[in-house]
Amino acid sequence: MPESLEANLRHIRQAITRSAERAGRDPGEVVLVAVTKTLPVERIREAIGLGLTRLGENRVQEALPKIEEIGPADLDWHLIGHLQTNKVKFIEGRFRMVQSVDSVGLAEALDARLQTALDVLIEVNVAEEPQKTGGLPADLPALARSVNAAQHLRLRGLMTVAPMVADAEQVRPVFRGLRSLRDTTSQQLGMPLPVLSMGMTDDYPIAIEEGATMLRLGRALFGPR
């Protein structure tokens, strides 16, 4: 189904442009992570053929055989799901970014295992949903200091997963909240944090209006799983 993937990508790029322009932003500031969880390698190769080189996986154990077969070269594999400390040994040389650092313990375990620098985002549970992973906003200052002090972790910004709602407008305050937390954290650390990873299939136009620089899209690209 290459045509449908191509059509979906074209539609997404048009939506990105419209949302960015509404917010007075450059659409070129918004990058797309194609969420490839549960997809077979052939389908992922189609996406790569269309120029999608940032690929997001939720689970290390599902990602490893795909990375093995497709290869990490020229691709940016992102881990976007929860990382257990017993899986940190699989990150180096495979993932270009871990978007889901959510505790001091995980940051320390990653740093201790890595030999080379790794780009990371801190996942913040902005809406403080009890069933979700992500550090709480109140814990962000300490977590950010810990990540920033780590020898092998390069803090690039923040990530959040917004609540599932019927009307995407309802999550606007969550995205606005993440941007505000990013600005405060950047000021506290005295360093730029350019990446705001927020916005998924159901809410990405709103996320862009609120400052998203990175979208994580699966269903919008590949259709229902």
Name a few traits of the molecule.
225 residues; alpha/beta; TIM Barrel; eight-stranded parallel sheet; 8 helices; 8 strands; 40% helix; 17% strand; globular
Protein model, in words:
By secondary structure, this protein is an alpha/beta fold. The protein has one domain (2-220): Alanine racemase (TIM Barrel, Alpha-Beta Barrel), CATH 3.20.20.10. 40% of the residues lie in helices and 17% in strands. The chain contains 8 helices and 8 strands. It has helices at residues 2-22, 41-49, 60-70, 104-113, 140-149, 172-189, 204-209, 219-222, and strands spanning 31-35, 54-57, 76-79, 97-101, 118-123, 153-159, 195-197, 214-217. It has an 8-stranded parallel sheet with strand order 7-6-5-4-3-2-1-8. Strand 2, helix 3 and strand 3 form a beta-alpha-beta unit. Helix 5 (140-149) crosses helix 6 (172-189). The chain is globular. The model has no long low-confidence stretch (mean pLDDT 97).
Which CATH first-tier class would you pick? Alpha Beta
Count all strands and give the number: 8
Order of helices and strands: HEHEHEEHEHEHEHEH
* Radius of gyration from the alpha-carbon trace, in angstroms: 17 Å
In brief:
The chain has 225 residues and is an alpha/beta fold. It has eight helices and eight strands; from the N terminus they run αβαβαββαβαβαβαβα. It has one domain (2-220): TIM Barrel (Alpha-Beta Barrel).
